[in-house]
Backbone:
């Protein structure tokens, strides 16, 4: 695997491990502050979406098709 930043949750599903949900109630943090900043969480989420999903490819393929359609229509209508 050539990823620079490995997202293990995505890798486990990609490899084929079975998933099992566990329900729990998280308690509030008693001391200190979290080290996870909002920007790091956004970066992690974007890494997950782009590395282990075909959604970005599908979205940009559709955008490219629409742009191409309009440009061909403009070109051929003149």
Residues:
């Amino acid at each position: 695997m050539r990823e620079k930043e490995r997202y293990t949750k995505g890798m486990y599903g990609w490899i084929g491990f079975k998933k099992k949900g566990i329900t729990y109630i998280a308690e509030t943090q008693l001391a200190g502050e979290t080290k996870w900043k909002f920007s790091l969480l956004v970066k992690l989420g974007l890494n997950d979406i782009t590395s282990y999903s075909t959604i970005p490819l599908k979205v940009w393929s559709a955008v490219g098709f629409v742009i191409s359609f309009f440009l061909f229509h403009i070109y051929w209508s003149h």
